[in-house]
Amino acid sequence: GESTIMPPSHLARSTEHMQYWISTSTCGFELSSSGVMPDDMFQHSHLLGVLKLSRCTFSFSSPPFLCCHSLRFQSLLHCQDLRTRTSNAHHYHTNSDKELDSSTTMLWECFQSLWVLDLRYTDWDQILSARMMDLMTQLRELIVMGANNWDMSHLRGRLRNIRKLRVTKSTCCFNNDVFSEMEMLELLDLSGNTITRGMTSLSGAARNRSLQTVIIGGNYGLKMISFRGCKELKNLLLKGYFSSLEELDISGTSVKTLDLGGVDATSLPERIILLGCEKLRAILWPQHKESQEWSGMLRIDTTSTSAPADGRGVPKAHPHADQSLEQQKEEKFKGWQISLPDARLLRSLYPARYKSLRGCHIDICHAATLVGSMVQGASGDEQVQVQPYTRTVVDSMYRDFLKYRPAEAVTAWEWDCPKIPLPPAPLMRRFLQVTCIIKVIMHGQGNTLLEDANTSALLLPDFICNGVSSLHVYDNPSITSVLAPPQRSEWTRLIWCRVERCPKLHAVFTIPMVRQGMFSDNVSTGFQSLETFWASQLLTARYIWDWDWTMATTHIKHSGNFESLVFLHLDYCPRLIHVLVLATPSVTLGALETLEIVQCGDLREVFPLGPELQEQDKIIEFPKLKYIHLCELPKLQSICGRRMSSPNLEAI
Predict the structure, then answer these.
(1) Count of alpha carbons within 13 Å of 321, Cβ hemisphere only?
(2) In the prediction, which pLDDT does 233 show?
(3) How far apart are CA 122 and CA 147, in angstroms?
(4) What's the Rg (C-alpha) of the chain?
(5) Sequence-separated (6 or more) residues with CB below 8 Å from residue 304
(6) From 198, 541, 559, 622, which residue has the greatest number of CB atoms within 10 Å?
(7) What region holds the Disease resistance protein At4g27190-like leucine-rich repeats domain (predicted)?
């Protein structure tokens, strides 16, 4: 049929009505009544740089634009092979076709200078054959949409200059790690595809310093997604159903928000690894029902940009660290492992049903305590011999406190700290088998991302306080207290707590009274499950539990507070005034078996009584107390009130 040329001024309002059109950078749109392109159409277009063809028909084995040696941009939308159209058959390649393709490959110079290739709903898979892609050495952007049964495995090892690669809404097959050698890639979009075979592993180039955005749609066969070491990766979006996905690893990237909101809740990865993700601030989880709680493995480390090659991101211990204690943590908490300097990220764990974990341990320490290798000792510390079986490491800042004391004054007999327990696992709830360890790494003084600006107290989300089973606060020069938020937080599951070498800590716990119900005057202090408390070398601590005991006397009605406490140890807390106020009869220590306090010079009374108990003048019962060890307490007046009973006492 005849062709007519339309001037550029009419392009915008006319394109919607064009059934067949051709766009070039020189002649505007050329209409064709039949849609079949003449073979000689571009014979004088050697300098043509941009070519867009829509719903055109031409010979794929010898297209009319072969003479366009200056093409930079090529777009094909809903185009057909002439032989396919004339035979009214599906596109296929006979042996003669392939011979023709091979013989004319040397003539495909138009692709050697190409920067952008856009193929949409054009069934021409031979254009991405190995032979053709070897010619596209300058290709920077490839767009494939609506492909049908294309073999994309030829991409591997080719298109090394590619910047943007989009394969969407297609049915195709890939090889494993087909993009792993594209070191210049900036954007990868694989959304809405059906992968028929081949690809179980998807990874980026290990040396890629350009990749910024990755979009991956649901894939039935994909088992592993890894973009470890792609430092510039900022955006990762997963959506759809991943029936076989076992691992997602984006360690060492710059991702700020891991968006899993579009993933089917039943197909989350079994393992999510985010080591060295220093900029990570949030994880968005999919909506799911209670019966779909995720029980996978989570690894997060935002304290460093380096991602270890072996996938391990556990910080090394400080010289002061009790190595047996560190070993306990490694052995017992192998599920979720999280290290972070910004406690706000912890709020992202709530939708993943963090509070339903079997056992959770939290470490709170200073960045300076994490060293590059395991260290057995340090010249700046004094080793204080206490017992043939154990010893206490006294920080150098306590030398002024100790140097005028005789040697026997700093020798103390003590019992070992009980081991970190794990709550028993319910037999009927499989997802409660998962354990968790969280390391909160604080930096500098007054870190506003972690601490209250006025008190330098560590702020933790309320569900963390409610869910944690063990807590270790150590080697932190700036923290003043572990401050629980006022809303609904009670430390109800805390079983084991150890606090040591925090010179500015004035109170271990500063916690407001928590009302039980909106209209109730009854409040709770929490700590119903606490069994072990150990405090050591707290230079300025005045209190262990600092509450408004006037309010407690008025409102605490029920029993249960501290009823499980078995082991209580304090050493080298020279400013400590008291340990725990027994404000009302409901605050009891009926399970306490071991009480040990050493080198607390200002301690006057261990368990002072509230006004109500003082007026009653009753005998305070400690029915299970067996061992008492008190040493270097010059101001101590009493343990608890004027009268106490310990019928099972064995040693004092």
Answers:
(1) 27
(2) 94
(3) 7
(4) 35
(5) 276, 278, 313
(6) 541
(7) 559-641
